[in-house]
């Protein structure tokens, strides 16, 4: 039997379904996974920064298309001198307008760079979004696991408390010594200590989750979900194929385009631009007018932007190496999360199917036998501790499973189809 985990917010999903929370005082104070993910996306500073970068890139794209401004110049010559050049009698007044004409495809190259920067910013934003969702899902799984751990230890304390009347009756009947009451009380208080630690861990996890969803203090009393849903992961090759299509790697297409455009811009910079001007000149001496035309171009004798071209070439050449390094790092991360998922799945499945039933059966048998005097208190407490340890191990395995699942779905950018073989 196959089941598909719930797709949440464009790709990241985990098998944690909304369910009534053990410690919720009201439904409105129970946080579900879908709520946590939507709030994490809405409040993420990293995504806000990525959105601003996209906005900045759009501004650069707009600016890259504009032409250079024309220049207006005013010149007054042969004025306020001596003798014949006194005051403005022989002055020459010139008003000139000039325009720079970019050659070598500089404007097109500049526009290509800006467009590629915008694409790269959007890919980076998509990668950041997957990371935000994965981190929130992992934090939710850890919080849900801490909450369930508290519930398990509370059940254990209640169970041990229920032993006290039974111990008292055995002591009164002379079947046990009064030391057994102290021994039972010690086991109960030791469990209470573990419960206090578990509650503190839950509060810490709750605060960490609150920060990820944009809250300075948790507004929720509990989280609602179902840790028990597990399944065998698909093949590693299939997951790796998906991971290679995620923004972590596909963004290098935009990076490559951006660096090619930068190289074209560096080469175009070596081509001199032309400045053309038209002027009107007034001669006060004979009150005549004349027109002037100017044309100027820099001589590329010293600066041909050779260093800039080399820099752009090397930056472009290192893109393949950066892509290969990112692919290797992604392969390691996917492999690590995949093995953690497989290991925690097997641990949870075997604990649930083999260890817990045996531990529960042994405890129930010894508990009923203890009331009849067939077992000692030590055997009863050991059986109860074994049952509790098995339950807590299952919880730890389930938390590891869902945290690894969230990590994998963040790395692959899609929900995983799990083979349901845990029943």
Automatic annotation (TrEMBL):
User: Which cellular compartments is it found in?
Assistant: Cell outer membrane
- The main location class comes to membrane
Presence of keyword Chloroplast: no
Q: Provide the leader sequence positions.
A: 1-24
Instruction: Kindly state one GO CC term assigned in the UniProt record.
Output: cell outer membrane
Kindly list the GO molecular function terms attached to this UniProt entry: efflux transmembrane transporter activity; porin activity
Gene3D superfamilies per record: Outer membrane efflux proteins (OEP) (1.20.1600.10)
Q: Which SUPFAM superfamilies match?
A: Outer membrane efflux proteins (OEP) (SSF56954)
Which of UniProt's keywords are assigned here? Cell outer membrane, Membrane, Signal, Transmembrane, Transmembrane beta strand, Transport
- Which InterPro entries does the protein's record reference? OMP_efflux, TolC-like
Q: Which family does it belong to?
A: Belongs to the outer membrane factor (OMF) (TC 1.B.17) family.
Annotated PANTHER family: OUTER MEMBRANE PROTEIN TOLC (PTHR30026), SLR1270 PROTEIN (PTHR30026:SF21)
Q: What is the name listed in the Swiss-Prot or TrEMBL entry for this protein?
A: TolC family protein
State the organism named in the record.
Hansschlegelia quercus
